[in-house]
Amino acid sequence: MEELIREAASIVYASRMTIALTGAGVSVESGIPDFRSAGGLWSRFDPAEYATIDAFRSNPEKVWDMLKEMEALVIKARPNKAHRGMGELEKMGFLHAIITQNVDNLHQAGGSKNVIEYHGNSSTLSCLGCGKRYRADEKREGEFPPRCECRQILKPDVVFFGEAIPPEPMNRSFQLASMAQALLVVGTSAVVSPANTIPGLAKRSGARIIEINKERTHLTSSLTDVFLQGEAGEVIETLVLEVKRLAGTGDTPA
Ligand code: OAD
Question: Nearest 5 degrees, angle CA 150-CA 67-CA 155?
Fold first, then answer.
């Protein structure tokens, strides 16, 4: 593992533009379960019944039962070592942007400024009827499920299956992926399209792919150049220390 960390750090150190693609695994150590691991959200809630826009339109009360549970976890979650380490990498100039599929704000809370939210953000709610938008926290104490002043049930501003990715994050992500020299893939199974086309695009454009995941994925044996298997918090903390050492800014033991 030490050798692999050194290899990954030297790629990041030498790269003129490094970006990251992150998924639910990066927030697991903050207490938010991922989707597809054993015990993940989709083992308890069938995504066809809870995560499609058609499901929301036909039975928003039912979908809100799941959303409420997730919201309770997200509200109390704090950034972990992975979020903070990536924030530090950005501050040092070694991470240009994070494309995240997460909707929990934890990268921003961990110090990252350039965060592209591919699947939206759960901190605002919109009305599918009249379009009015609300802060989620201002609706939390009121009626459940939360409703618009026009009485329609509100929907969080996150992308449901069957909905399009907003054009701005989609275009910026593809542009960055085609320019990056290195891509960190962190805590994602990379099975959901179109986010999962980002590693292939980056690779074809010449980027080295560093994958940090607890388990192997379909990328591991196809696109990944360096696979760092483990929990994102610990792996990223070690990676950041090694990048700092290369940059001459780390605390090196005497
Ligand atoms: P998944 O649940 O599909 O994948 C999570 C990945 O993180 C897996 O590869 C896990 O092995 C890994 N993992 C779990 N804990 C980890 C840890 N502590 N450290 C490192 N890796 C860990 O989640 P996503 O890939 O994010 O979209 O899922 C993508 C999309 O599917 C989500 O944005 C959501 C979901 O359906 C929508 O709902 C539209």
Answer: 30
